[in-house]
User: Which sequence fits this backbone?
């Protein structure tokens, strides 16, 4: 329900009828219920332009606002703010109309785009660790959200599978014998460490590893076969993590660094032909205005760098995938790198001016002391271990309630544990660092996944107690119902905002407000209490129905499962 768009048009008509010209009309959410449902705060700007008293302008606008439909009343507040209340009859009608809508009133974007979302990006030399968690979760949520709103989304998993370390790894793999590939690669972290020990201890092995790097690049069949067996084993581990985490990445979405290897010389050729790059200290470099340090795109020995690969990827995504918008969900510390790469790509004409390039940066996951999240012995926390622990802790949290069989308990524990990890990440501004706390994320109180899942389960409990058909319309009967219905109808505007700004926490904040409102409604307005009129009971049951549907849809977009009983 694009309520703000409807209100903007009403205000625009009022301004037009009052012979007042305005560039654009922005409708804001009211900060408190007593200030209305929405506000138009553009009068102050108009007052400066027209050099008139803002309250007089506000009064003129109010006199021309059509209040026969969506709007119940308007009031002037302060120096010239216009507070807007929506009508209960209109809210009731709109809420009832979407009761049977599987999209709960959310439409599709007016102009669908083809959007490439680059996320997760594990290194094939190591197991996925907590450093990959935020990219995987945020990226997948953004991709799912854009798809739901109607964009054509192309997921891209830009895995690190190229470079000098792979010569070392395949040389060590060869030493172990191909029969032991599965066993030796089961613990990728240890395999990498063992290979590094051999590399550091043996000059002969190190020379062989360096030689293998060249052979990989030259397409040597033997080396490529060993390299591919390592990549396959590594991808198998990633897929296990994605499955546990509920992330929608498959091998079809993998576009590895090696894929762009053959395209790198043409990138350099383009930069040279357009006089964008120049030789500096033997290396091919690009100097951007305002940056003292050049961006190296080819080393003196002919080797390429990450910037070169990213430029090739950008050109491929625009020229071959025909992307209108490209989102890189990568650590915020890479902001300067992407700013430079985006600028070079635009300068070189690899990316048209109308293509949107975005670095969707995010902060670091910290422990309680405010330091980067590590194991007790200071090592990197493997992502698979973190997810397994989340399920164990969730099981401990709910098993004392004794509401599930052993089989059901495992399924619910997985939904709650994985949901807790994902929601804790998504519920904060992505650019912020956040403190990882098991106690907080598995709490029944506050802005947690468990709080949302519990609210959904409580509504299902109401339906089980009613044990009958729910019919009739939603009829707003008081202030709390007015606010709850209004919140439900704000769902579409919330999703649109989150998609434009790439901010999943916009959705979680909305969910928290929605569930908090429902809990107040549930306490103040009994649903199944004896003596309540049938029409009122059915209206409140329908309101609970719509609330449950919106909670579920929002959690679906976040990649979190609902449960019917906790």
Assistant:
């Amino acid at each position: 329900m694009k309520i703000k768009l409807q209100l903007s048009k009403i205000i625009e008509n009022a301004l037009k009828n009052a012979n007042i010209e305005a560039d654009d009309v922005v409708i804001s959410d009211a900060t408190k219920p007593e200030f209305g449902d929405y506000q138009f705060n553009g009068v102050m700007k108009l007052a400066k332009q027209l050099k008139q008293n803002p309250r007089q302008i506000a009064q003129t606008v109010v006199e021309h606002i059509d209040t026969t439909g969506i709007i119940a009343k308007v009031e002037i507040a302060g120096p010239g703010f216009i507070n807007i209340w929506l009508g209960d009859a209109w809210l009731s009608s709109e809420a009832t109309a979407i009761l049977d809508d599987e999209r709960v009133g959310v439409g599709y974007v007016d102009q669908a785009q083809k959007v490439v979302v680059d996320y997760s990006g594990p290194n094939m030399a190591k197991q996925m660790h907590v450093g990959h968690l935020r990219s995987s979760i945020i990226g997948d949520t953004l991709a799912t959200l854009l798809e739901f709103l109607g964009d054509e989304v192309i997921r891209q998993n830009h895995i690190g599978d190229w470079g000098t370390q792979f010569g070392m790894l395949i040389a060590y793999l060869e030493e172990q014998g191909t029969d032991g590939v599965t066993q030796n690669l089961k613990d990728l972290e240890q395999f990498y460490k063992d290979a590094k020990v051999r590399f550091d201890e043996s000059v002969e092995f190190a020379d062989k590893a360096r030689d293998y790097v060249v052979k990989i690049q030259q397409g040597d069949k033997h080396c490529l076969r060993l390299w591919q067996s390592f990549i396959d084993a590594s991808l198998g581990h990633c897929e296990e993590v994605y499955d546990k985490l509920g992330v929608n990445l498959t091998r079809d979405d993998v576009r590895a660094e090696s894929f762009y290897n053959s395209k790198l010389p043409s990138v350099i050729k383009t930069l040279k032909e357009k006089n964008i790059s120049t030789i500096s200290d033997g290396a091919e470099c690009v100097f951007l205005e305002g940056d003292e340090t050049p961006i190296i795109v080819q080393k003196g020995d002919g080797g390429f760098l990450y910037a070169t690969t990213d430029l090739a990827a950008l050109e491929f995504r625009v020229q071959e995938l025909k992307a209108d918008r490209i989102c890189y969900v990568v650590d915020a510390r890479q902001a300067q790198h992407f700013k430079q790469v985006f600028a070079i790509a635009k300068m070189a004409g690899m990316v048209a001016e109308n293509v949107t390039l975005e670095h969707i940066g995010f902060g670091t996951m910290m422990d309680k002391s405010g330091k980067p999240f590590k194991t007790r012995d200071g090592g990197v926390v493997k992502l698979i271990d973190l997810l397994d622990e989340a399920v164990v802790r969730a099981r401990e949290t709910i098993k004392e309630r004794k509401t599930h069989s052993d089989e059901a308990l495992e399924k619910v524990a997985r939904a709650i544990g994985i949901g807790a990890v994902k929601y804790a990440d998504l519920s904060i501004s992505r650019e912020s660092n956040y403190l990882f706390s098991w106690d907080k994320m598995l709490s029944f109180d506050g802005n947690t996944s468990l709080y949302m899942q519990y609210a959904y389960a409580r509504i299902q409990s109401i339906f089980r107690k009613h044990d009958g058909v729910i019919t009739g319309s939603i009829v707003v009967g008081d202030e709390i119902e007015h606010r709850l219905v209004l919140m439900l109808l704000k769902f579409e505007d919330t999703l649109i905002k989150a998609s434009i700004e790439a901010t999943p926490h916009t959705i979680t904040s909305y969910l928290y407000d929605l569930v908090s409102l429902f809990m107040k409604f549930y306490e103040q307005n009994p649903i199944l209490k004896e003596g309540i009129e049938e029409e009122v009971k059915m209206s409140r049951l329908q309101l609970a129905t719509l609330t449950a549907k919106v909670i579920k849809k929002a959690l679906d977009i976040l990649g979190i499962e609902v449960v019917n009983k906790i």
Q: What stands out?
A: The first strand starts at residue 27 and ends at 29. The chain has 21 helices and 13 strands. The radius of gyration is 28 Å. The mean pLDDT is 92.
